[in-house]
Amino acid sequence: MFDVGLGEALLLVVLALIIFGPDQLPKVASQAGRALRQLRAMANSARDDLREGLGPEFADFDPADLNPRRFVRKHLLEDLDDLDQPGPAPAEEPLLPFGERPPYDPEAT
After folding, report:
1. N or C end of the chain: which has fewer CB within 10 A?
2. Percent of the chain that is helix, strand, coil (3-state, to 5)
């Protein structure tokens, strides 16, 4: 998600040690973890409330589908993927025996 490599992570740890000091770092880390858990719980609660409010016809609703990039991929580009899949073969019409006249519909002409 953040694309943080090993060197960047070490730099962040060193900066945290310099800013907060070795005595305060565990306390700050536990507070950050607690805040992330609360934020995740609030987001899950909001998602569940939204699904409950929309009703059973939107049971498969995912708020992430509102992201424009994902919306386009889901609704426009999935159809293109379906075209690559071979579909059922078209039904062949039986051939007329030799000498038989094809049916004629005077209203169609």
Report:
1. N
2. 65, 0, 35
Amino acid identity, position 66? L
Tell me how far apart the alpha carbons of residues 24 and 89 are, in angstroms, rounded to a whole number.
70
Phi-psi region of 21 (alpha: psi -120 to 50; beta: other; left: phi over 0): left
Say how far apart CA 17 and CA 14 lie, in whole Å. Answer: 5
| pLDDT 10s digits, 50-107 | 888 888 887 777 777 778 888 888 777 766 555 555 655 566 666 788 888 888 888 8
State how far the Cα of 45 lies from the Cα of 3, in Å rounded to an integer: 28
